[in-house]
Amino acid sequence: MPNFISGTVQLVRQQWFRELGDQSLLINDVAVRIRAGILLVIPLYMAYTLASIVWGSHWEVTGNYIKDTYELDFDDRILYHVEAVRRVYDYTVQTWVLLYALFEMLVGMWRTTSRLSPTIYLATLLARHHRPVWKPLIPKRFAWTIGASLIAVCLVFFNPDTFAGWVNAVAQTELLPTTTNYMPRWIPLVLVWVCLAFMWMETVLGVCAGCQIHALLVWMGVIKHECEACNNLTWD
Question: Which residue among 19, 45, 172, 231 is buried most deeply as judged by most CB within 10 Å?
Fold first, then answer.
């Protein structure tokens, strides 16, 4: 029991960091992969939602009125008269799910705010019996910034009128329409699958695509960091 209590205290204090006093923070990559697996549920749900929107039926049959017209289409299928309405989408649940995902991406970037993330505690708890693999936080922070950007685009897609209202209020003119969705449906659909692929690679293959992009930008000289470990993905 004392060991369990001390382990719990250590978990709450340290989370997935090696030493909180390190100038360049190191995090347990085992816990990071577990957390990515937990959060993988979100892009899966969003991919299902967007697939239903793009490829699903745009009509809902209402009432019991279905009448045979005794006519056939070009594929010899029977044509019917039905009562149907245009399908209306309510994205309230999807919006809250995306807001939580955005919250998780943002709070994990810094030592102080990471204490607000339930998934960090859970992932660290699940990884406590595995040998830690210490990796620098900076490339992971860059990867989570990419994830937050993808989530933000999807939020705009699901709430185009709200975003348009903010933009128009700041610009003092109608730059974006508030009655139609100005974002093509293929944009969030592609971004969700990209996010899903990145998180699957992190969880299953242990490959952080965002970290690889970060290393490439460092190699090109676009990003500069004094921490050698942050720029060398093979560093142990």
Answer: 231
Q: Position 158: which residue type?
A: F
Token duo for residue 211: 């970290």
Distances (CA, A) of 82 to 62, 66, 95, 102: 8, 5, 33, 42
Distance in angstroms (rounded) separating the CA atoms of residues 9 and 15 = 10
Q: Per residue in 157-169, is it b (16+ CB within 10 Å) or e — as a string?
A: bbbbeebbeeeee
How many Å apart are CA 70 and CA 47, to the nearest integer? 39
Angle, in degrees to the nearest 10, between helices 92-107 and 137-158: 160
Longest Cα–Cα distance in the chain? 79
Phi, psi of 74 (to 5 degrees): -70, -20
Q: Specify the amino acid at residue 42.
A: I
User: What pLDDT, on a 0 to 100 scale, did the predictor assign at position 13?
Assistant: 65
Tokens of 26: 């190191």
The H-or-E segment that residue 219 falls in is helix 209-220
**What's the rounded mean pLDDT across residues 51-63?**
74
The average confidence (pLDDT) of the chain is: 82
Domain positions in the chain: 2-58+89-231
* Residue 231 pLDDT > 90: no
Please give the helix or strand (H or E) that residue 144 lies within, else none.
Answer: helix 137-158
